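Minutes, project check-in
Item: structure for the 307-residue chain
Input as provided by the requester:
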Amino acid sequence: MTTRREFLKYSAMLAGAMAIGDAGAKTTGDITKTWNSKKKSGFTLWQIPSHSNTIGNSYVFQTAKGKVIVMDGGFPEEANTLRGFIGALGNEVEAWFISHPHNDHMGALTEILKNPQEMKIKHIYHSRISKTVQAAEGPYSPSCQEFYDLLDKTTIPVTDIRTPGDVFSYDDMKLKVLSVANEITTNAYNNSSMIMRVWDKKKTIVFLGDAGIECGNLALNGPFRDDLDCEYLQMAHHGQNGCDKHFYQSIKFRVCLWPTPSWVWNNDQGKGFNTGILKTVETRTWMKEIGIKEHHVTCEEGLWKLS
């Protein structure tokens, strides 16, 4: 259970660490005063880092009228951090989207569903993988099944999105689902990631989740190919061993969002820069070749916001 001290700690740490100003800018001071200090244009996005330098996806949006939308949320260990952040925004979530059932994406929500405390969640959206796909990654099946069992039991409305193309509107913010769960059993859970496009009149962001090569190719050759072009792109699978170079070369984007801890960013599992088995440095090289100059990396910037 989150104590009042923990709640205040996480609220102050996260809300006070970055107030809303110009897109991508870091400022200090009281976040509520800054929100109200000038008229906002469109929604605000926060890319939330892991507090324990682990891998994971966690994004929070707030519309100009104050509605909160969450995408993924990270490992179970990140639940208290997320509680504090959402608490600072009013403790009510209009919609929670889960890209796929790996623990570093749905684990925090799993913990919150077990013990919501004072948090109100109005709707949960996901794309449920089949039993065949679930069994293809045996070590992850128990946590996946626990999550699904909680979804089946909760009184919160849950929507299982079965076909791409659905569009959701939250005040000034729109979200479109570009891909859903499929029957690919290679890199099974990652390749069943929901790819989502979020936009308003000012900006467009595409979230690839943990999409692998096969999932990326399906999207490239699917009916929503043009929706992959965007300004901001969340790098697939934390920027390593996700979509391939061809995918990134085939779409238009200007800025990379990296939900990536330092050991993944540097491919360093204890023996030095780029000495591990991860592909992050290779992906970074691709981005340089493509000409991408703006990057927002959780391990380097911490909490980053876009408004």
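Outcome recorded: The chain has twelve helices and 16 strands.
No further action items on this chain.
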